[in-house]
């Protein structure tokens, strides 16, 4: 029973995070540039673990009870993601990205940390996915099986972010071509700006 619950949690967690999104695009780009990859992977994975465990513990009900908090996060997330999307569009247009190791950006560790935290906690959907959805599904499992489900979901986050961040180096031969970077940045810009519009549309729809 515990093994089955863990597997179900792993598949549920994987299904929620393995998608093109702002956070994954950021992790991929940091991995390709080998820029504080360990820090980014740790922040994203640990944040997911905390939110998932909170959801399993039942705190997700508080998120549903405070829709105003999600509205604030929508505005903040839309502003940050929109700004990042415009930066990616500028890089794609001018071709200013480069495949350089993290040493050139060593003094930007705090900026990378803040960006990783922003991509995680300014996205209102992360609370709905981890705390509300995972928490709700886990409630269908009795006793310790509920926590086994949560552990499986946490494991999926660790595996995914580690694979995305550290595995990105396997694509480095492709990204030695500057045009590949322009395509990547163009794709990131599209994803970010689309998410920005989606968040703002959600704000408008909720307010009406």
What does this protein look like?
This protein is mainly alpha-helical. It has one domain. The protein is 79% helix and 0% strand. The chain is built from nine helices and no strands. The model is unreliable at 99-107 and 204-208 (pLDDT under 50).
Annotation keywords:
208 residues; mainly alpha; 79% helix; disordered C terminus
Gap from first CA to last CA: 45 Å
- Spatial shape: globular
Tally of discrete structural domains? 1
Beta-strand proportion = under 5%
Question: Quick summary of this structure?
Answer:
This protein is mainly α and 208 residues long. 79% of the residues lie in helices and 0% in strands.
Map the helices and strands.
Layout: H1 2-17, H2 22-33, H3 37-56, H4 60-65, H5 67-94, H6 109-121, H7 124-138, H8 144-167, H9 178-207
Helix pairs in contact: 1-7, 1-8, 2-3, 2-8, 2-9, 3-6, 3-7, 3-8, 5-9
